[in-house]
């Protein structure tokens, strides 16, 4: 992998890792479902006027993609963080989508679950259980459950993406964002209308406006665009391991930018989850060589 492409991958990891701190900042002023709506509203407009609907993709598949990857994934994630999961823990717990994807692929795509992947999943989920035992403070059990629902939604979205096949990723993101808007607005009105007030729409702080812009543009367009570009040029096994650094950046940025504490139990949980991810990615190769 060329050095400049490694730097591009690392820049995406940095943007995605800091993303969790940005969400935490925005949630101080904007309710989670409304924040999700605003994120995808600005991801859809004005871009929708410049991107055609993905070719060879039905409206049905576009809806399922939007439902899993955008509506449920981020509604659960933002709600989990709003209820009481810190940005560092959220960045870590969300990575269990790797194992949910593997389990769903076994059930629905009849793929095989190798010994290494089973061991990796057990180790990683033991890290999540370890987090659960330390509920309180910046870990809320309901919030942790919601983040895990977000990870499951992401995993379902991965299978939908695989079913859709190779398309223009930015076009898929833009049209998926557009489709999500009426559903997210309806959810926000149903569950958060009592939190709506004029201040939210007319007196947002500069931090919240910047956070929404960050979620809509660097995270969505630059992140998805560069990631898809790298995947089109290198094997997935070369590009995917960079995501192991996302929770590392998430933990570090949470500690540096919002003062999140890093007690030993968080470091142990992080070690278990990242170790499980490493075994999931490289365990089969190691066993073959052995």
Q: Can you walk through the features of this model?
A:
With 290 residues, this protein is mostly helical. It has 14 helices and no strands. It has one domain (3-289). Helices cover 76% and strands 0% of the residues. α2 (32-44) packs across α10 (206-216).
Average of the residue pLDDT scores: 88
Radius of gyration: 19 Å
Number of helices: 14
- In terms of quaternary structure, the protein is single chain
How many domains comprise the coordinates? 1
SSE succession: HHHHHHHHHHHHHH
Overall helicity:
over 70%
Q: Can you tell me the residue ranges where pLDDT is under 50 for at least 5 consecutive residues?
A: none
Structural class: mainly alpha
Compact description:
The protein has 290 residues and is mainly alpha-helical. 76% of the residues lie in helices and 0% in strands. The longest helix has 26 residues, at 264-289.
